[in-house]
Hints:
The complex is a heterodimer. By secondary structure, chain A is mostly beta strands. Chain A has strands spanning 4-6, 10-13, 19-25, 31-38, 42-49, 56-57, 64-70, 73-78, 87-94, 104-105, 109-113. The radius of gyration of chain A is 13 Å and the shape is globular. Chain B is an all-beta fold. Chain B is built from no helices and eleven strands. In chain B, the strands form two sheets. In chain B, strands 2, 4, 5, 9, 10 and 11 form a six-stranded mixed β-sheet that branches. A five-stranded antiparallel β-sheet of chain B has the order 1-3-8-7-6, with no helix packed on it. The N and C termini of chain B lie far apart (41 Å). At the A-B interface, strand 4, strand 5, strand 9 and strand 10 of A face strand 4, strand 5 and strand 10 of B.
Amino acid sequence: DVKVTQSSRYLVKRTGEKVFLECVQDMDHENMFWYRQDPGLGLRLIYFSYDVKMKEKGDIPEGYSVSREKKERFSLILESASTNQTSMYLCASSSNRVVNTEAFFGQGTRLTVV
Amino acid sequence: GEDVEQSLFLSVREGDSSVINCTYTDSSSTYLYWYKQEPGAGLQLLTYIFSNMDMKQDQRLTVLLNKKDKHLSLRIADTQTGDSAIYFCAVVPGSQGNLIFGKGTKLSVKP
């Protein structure tokens, strides 16, 4: 069974903290993505990566950074958490090797910044 | 860039058909997807259609694609309470590899 695993389902952090959200996939996928989901706004792409040590900004990268040191792991970093980063964060992965680029999603991390 | 639009809410009675609509702007989109998100969960792929197809049927699901109007729809026959979820339309623009999502349509099924 294919799997994308996010390290936490729920997180509560304080304003100003550095926050790490971890995502691991076991499908040997080249592509990995971080989205945030907010009511009425749908999914917005924060960052994505097409290969190890490679990253590209999505639509809303401000306040975030990412790290992809290994193919299976893609980390999202909030350098200094703020209350407007309270959201549901979804990680996804997909393959470059097939034409149909179906994306597989993790269960999501609901982050609350207080 | 690519823009994907869907209505935010749809309410139907159990046993009726549901039709969720989506419009997109990039005519070079190759694959078009429908994802389902149940409460508290991530997204799961429901079905997809390739741009050279007009229709795809999979059990209770029918996807219709009108390339001229850049309109995609998902029809769920005999809608059940278990179909209550948020449904996302997503496309892969011709120039990119990442998915562009609509805002999601929340389907409520009333007994």
